[in-house]
Structure prediction request, 128 residues.
Amino acid sequence: MKKRPLAVTILAVIALIAGLLVLLEALLFFGTGLFGLVQLRFFTVAWLGGLLSLVVALIWLGTARQLFTLDPRGWMFVVVIAIVTLVINVIGLLGGNEFNSLWWSFIAPVLALVLAFLPGTRAAFGQK
Prediction:
């Protein structure tokens, strides 16, 4: 069994946190609101933003499991889902949300990309 490097463990925890944050984001799109303080929009179809966020959250959570088990697909999944999350966040900004309501959803994907491209992380997943 391969030993999991610290960067991979941190990356897996970030993926888990990202999944939970995007799940919260989905609830905000569905109109649940954060005690009435924040409600997100996605152009004029908030439920579509919520549905996209829900799918992305499930992928983040599945990716966290892959990273914890050093599944070689985990590295590719974390890179792809981090980029997809950033793109959806930018589209959310263009769809009428203020950066103040979405800034927190940019942190985890950016950190995940930085950690994913560290040489030790890439080596743990057999990437060159």
In short: Helices lie at 6-29, 46-68, 72-94, 99-102, 104-116, 119-124. Residues 68 and 127 are 17 Å apart (CA to CA). The chain has a mean pLDDT of 83. The chain has six helices and no strands.
